[in-house]
Design brief:
This protein is α/β, with parallel strands linked by helices and about 375 residues long. The chain is built from 13 helices and 13 strands. It folds into two domains: about 180 residues, Rossmann fold (3-Layer(aba) Sandwich), CATH 3.40.50; about 180 residues, Rossmann fold. It has a seven-stranded parallel sheet with strand order 3-2-1-4-5-6-7, sandwiched between helices. The protein starts with a strand and ends with a helix.
Length: about 375
């Protein structure tokens, strides 16, 4: 039998969302490495961004918007490529296509908390997401938490949703060689947060905890909080908190770093701090654990599901608990070693090979049902 032929939205490889780029960048090579690997065709997108081993169909004329591409251009490209299954990896999918559609929904925070997304066109986007979910033959998501949320808000039966947790690249392993130093702006000791700076990430709690810890430590080397990620409207208030305390250097912003620098940041951080109120997955938490970095995370969303007993889980609104946890993680070397060991073991559960096999199983399921 010929291998299954899968079309994947090629625009995902250059998505403005780093999480989407990481998703397709990890998934597609892992799919191609499977024993029963499918043939993968990129539908549209930039040829320069395509990973090795896949073919590509160029975009044909379509309405000049993202919605126009998704609703018109993408199904046309899928028909031209003669794929067996179309995979839309980032929330939106054609409402009508000539082949079965698999849609990945990473979370539904925009439905649960629309106040976090106060954009003029957000109701339109939410409606687009909703109809994409209901039109797809099958939905993939990244955690049991997200599966439950998707089922509830979109009224989808559980048998139309499959959980395929994300993986972590081998390059994040604590034993891998580092090829970069820390950026000049970063000094040790520091806590690290990786991810776009959204208000839902609740980072004021992290800043206040670092400021309180600095006061507690007094003359000891100054602790800082390093924020790696694109600002989505939350950066200025965070920097203002540190400036108002007279220590603007307590918050260090890095808009974008290359992969080797990210590895160095994970490995040299005292801990990853993640007080987010809502996460569909939280890949930086798994990357930190794989790197041997202790994690302090909120007891919210999918984070307890990821971390298990390998990190410190805290109420996202208990500021005193975060302060105490930061002071403890900085001063207790035995705790750091224990969490590092637990985290490394926990992170081994999250592989791109597992993600790819579960995803291929869904492709085959919908293709058989067509």
């Amino acid at each position: 039998m010929r291998p299954l032929r899968v079309g994947i939205d090629g625009r995902a490889f250059t998505s403005p969302a780093p999480g989407i780029r990481r998703y397709v960048g990890g998934l597609v090579p892992a799919l191609l490495a499977l024993d029963d690997a499918p043939e993968v065709v990129a539908l549209g997108g930039s040829a320069a961004a395509m990973p090795a081993g896949i073919s590509r169909v160029a975009e044909r004329p379509h309405p000049p918007t993202n919605a126009g591409w998704t609703l018109v251009g993408l199904p046309v490209a899928a028909a031209e490529a003669r794929v067996d299954v179309l995979h839309a990896p980032a929330y939106t999918a054609p409402f009508v296509a000539s082949v079965p559609v698999v849609l990945t929904i990473h979370d539904v925070s925009y439905e649960r908390n629309p106040a976090w997304y106060p954009y003029r066109r957000d109701p339109v986007r939410r409606a687009f997401y909703r109809w994409s979910a209901r039109s797809a033959n099958h939905v993939l998501t990244v955690s049991r938490f997200s599966a439950s949320e998707i089922s509830e808000v979109y009224h989808l039966p559980h048998d139309r949703i499959t959980v395929a947790p994300l993986g972590v690249a081998d390059s994040f392993a604590a034993t891998s060689a580092l090829s970069s130093d820390l950026p000049a702006a970063v000094t040790t000791p520091f806590l690290l947060h990786v991810g776009d700076l959204h208000h839902r990430r609740n980072l004021a709690v992290a800043v206040e905890a670092v400021l309180a810890a600095r006061r507690h430590f007094g003359a000891l080397p100054a602790l800082s909080l390093v924020l790696v990620g694109t600002d989505r409207g939350a950066a200025q208030p965070l920097c203002a908190l540190a400036a108002a305390a007279g220590v603007p250097e307590a918050v260090v912003r890095l808009e974008h770093v290359e992969e080797p620098v990210l590895h160095a940041l994970y490995r040299r951080a005292t801990a990853l701090i993640y007080p987010s109120r809502y996460e569909g997955f939280g890949l930086p938490v798994v990357e930190a654990m794989a790197s041997g970095t202790p994690v302090l995370v909120a007891r919210a969303g999918s984070l307890p599901e990821l971390v298990g007993d390998a990190g410190i889980l805290l109420d996202p609104d208990d500021e005193r608990a975060w302060i105490d946890a930061v002071i403890r993680i900085v001063t207790d070397e035995t705790l750091r070693r224990d969490l590092s060991t637990r985290g490394i073991a926990r992170a081994r559960l999250f592989t791109w090979a597992r993600t790819a096999q579960t995803t291929l199983d869904v492709y085959q399921q919908v293709a058989r049902a067509a």
